[in-house]
Known about the structure:
Blueprint: E1 2-10, H1 14-21, E2 34-39, E3 44-51, E4 54-66, E5 70-77, E6 81-91, E7 94-103, H2 107-115, H3 118-137
Antiparallel strand pairs: 1-7, 2-3, 3-4, 4-5, 5-6, 6-7
Amino acid sequence: MTTAEKSIDVNVAISTAYNQWTQFEDFPAFMADVESVTQLDDRRLHWEVEIGGVRREFDAEITEQHPEERVAWRSTSGTEQAGVVTFHKLDDATTRVTLQLEMEPTGVAETVGEKTGLISRMVERDMKNFKEFIEGRGVESGAWRGDIPREG
């Protein structure tokens, strides 16, 4: 299992950073390898990605979500992955966003990518892109403020 973690400070209020992150269908705007995310309901998402020339589709379930704190998920089909993004208020206009992603490589391309640090570089790039995206906008494109408690 590959684990990648990256934190970045964004110059927007915590509510703006969190609200934007809940707009999953906007992920292709700042995640270079994500072709589309379709939100099926409050908990379920369908992803289409292309990493290193390999196209994958998978479904994911949000396992925990608390406004301005965290969003956690795990795949339920296809690529095996799980992750959590957390939001930390540094001051009224600055938020630290931390993304932790765990992924089980499948196939030659993903195994090579794991050994060369590709996943870690992708997470770092996508977090920098998120910073540019949200700071450039200054406001979120939408928001979902619902709470999903962790089960079990």
